[in-house]
UniProtKB/TrEMBL annotation:
The lineage of its organism: Bacteria, Bacillati, Bacillota, Clostridia, Candidatus Pullichristensenella. This is C40 family peptidase. One of its GO terms (molecular function) is cysteine-type peptidase activity. Pfam families: NLPC_P60 (PF00877). It comes from Candidatus Pullichristensenella excrementigallinarum. Keywords: Hydrolase, Protease, Thiol protease. Residues 147-269 form the NlpC/P60 domain. Belongs to the peptidase C40 family. PROSITE patterns: NLPC_P60. InterPro entries: NLP_P60_dom (IPR000064), Papain-like_cys_pep_sf (IPR038765), Peptidase_C40 (IPR051202).
Amino acid sequence: MNAIVRETVCPLLAEPSWESTLVDEVLYGMVVELLESPAPGWYRVRTHYRYEGIAPASALLAEPAQVSAWQDLPKRVVLEKNFCDVLNRPKVQGWRMETLPRGGVIAVEGEPENGWQKVRLVDGRTGFSQASLLSPFYDAPCCAEETSLRKALVRCAMLYAGTHYRWGGKSPMGIDCSGLVSMAYMLCGICIYRDASIVDGFPIHAISREHMQPGDLLFFPGHVAMYLGEGRYCHSTGRAGDDGFAVNSLYPGDPDYRADLAGKITAIGSYF
């Protein structure tokens, strides 16, 4: 049985308690599989990228007919801005019905008119969003050509510049290292493993360091970053002073060189 996320950001926790550790987040409009109910008001769920956690039932819509209808609708995703409001009329003065984060998924009806797109929320209500805030939703790689896809991956990762660090986070409200790189790939239509490791069954494989290119992943003990080219990488780090998205260098002579990371690369991962 499946359900749709109906909250801006739905936490996935280690245990059925609000005081439990956050292990992941699923975003508005994403579909999850319900596995069991470990306690009243909670579900263990599996995401479409095969990650599991405990979600509050209040954040999910599990009515089978609505889930089925939602999956068949044409979709868009929030990309260019951190958040996108759904309003009750196509005017900036409209009442806010819902807010979607970057990566949130919304169904669309018809074509934009005068800069506004009619959208459908997961519960069936309709509203309007500024069309410029909605981008194509990809469930396959967004670019067939390798160089273009690499550029798209880097661009999506860099959209999170300014986001603070949140353990288990995966949105502009806060993001961790694997949340950053997995969201960059997801926005480009590729599902990779959610944690900081290379896992069989997901489309990232190990390559030699001399072959790494922009969009590839750098793995460290308990940490992952995206390579940008020319010895630089972006990542989300909880280190004091960075406290979130940062760009650093692998070259010792650069002012943003991090010796604690550069010397501890365990693997280079690539989709290509």
